Amino acid sequence: MTSNQDLISTIAAFDLKAYLADRQPKVEAALDAAIRPGYPDTIYAAMRYSLLAGGKRLRPILCLASCEAVGGNPDVAMPMACALEMIHTMSLIHDDLPAMDNDDYRRGKLTNHKVYGEDIAILAGDGLLAYAFEYIATHTHGVSADRVLRAIAHLARAVGADGLVGGQVVDLESEGNAEISIETLMYIHNHKTGALFKSSVVGGAILAGATELEIEKLTKFAHNIGLAFQIIDDILDITATQAELGKTAGKDLQAQKATYPKLWGLEESRHQADKLVAEAKTILAEFGDRARPLQALADYITDRKN
Ligand code: GRG
Q: For residue 83, what is the domain's CATH number?
């Protein structure tokens, strides 16, 4: 068993910058190849506009790293990694619509509906969502159909009313009520943000043939980093600039949203995020060196500036 001190020095030695410099361009290239311009021109252009607008590509990279953490070949998980980014992107397109968060900027660019109109933005989101599932089903090779089916089912659940959609609904219903309980806040974020993190980590592991125990541990790991990610998101909304975020800063205050800093204060929120990440890394101690990328990615979640 790896001691905590060993764990810390192992992770410190891992070059996350080099890892991301290798993975991010691979994901970019895979996304670009996954959806090519086509007919009708407008819909393909709108889908590609948001899909290829940058972003940290955290969900695909988590999926690949998780596949590796249980001894799988990350190439096998690339179609699922792309699908996760398609779904994440469509959720951002819909979230930015006037009917929801009504945002003008995302990833440093005008939002999809600002460029293509609301009608096309809705359809671009729908197109990305449908294609994500088609893409996993048709492009995942070298894995049994059982595993592919299980990964698809996990992802579908994460997207629907028991996942992103449910989280978004409670978020919308809570708007203007900064006094919601911590339980409601947790529900919103565990569904709106956490569910897709979980599917990223668990999906990569399922495709690699993870055991039930490994899946259980990775689920807990993903739960913690998903929550930590959202706490940091809330902190950055207060402390970072629009240029750093690539989207409007201070939106939560403006929309009178309940946030972790509002409930706990900035310092305690940061402490809670650090605690969740430390626990997440410990959960993976028994996975050995193969989990170093995942552990370093957990640190990245709290160290990030956007
Ligand atoms: C999924 C069917 C379906 C509908 C969408 C709108 C909606 C339902 C859900 C909202 C989901 C949402 C916008 C959650 C916020 C997630 C979040 C913290 C986004 C920011 O993620 P980053 O920082 O962004 O990873 P980049 O741009 O780096 O990818």
A: 1.10.600.10
